[in-house]
Amino acid sequence: MHLYLDSASLDDVKKAHDLGVLDGVTTNPSLIAKEGVPYAKRLEEICRVCKGPVSAEVIATDYEGMLREGREHIKIASNIVVKLPSTIDGVRACKALADQGVKTNMTLCFQSLQALMVAKAGAFLVSPFIGRLDDIGQDGMGLIREIKTIYTNYGLKTKILAASVRHTNHLLHCALLGADVATCPLKVITDCMKHPLTDKGIEIFLADYKKAFGGQ
Ligand code: E4P
Question: What is the pTM of this model?
Answer without folding.
Answer: 0.96
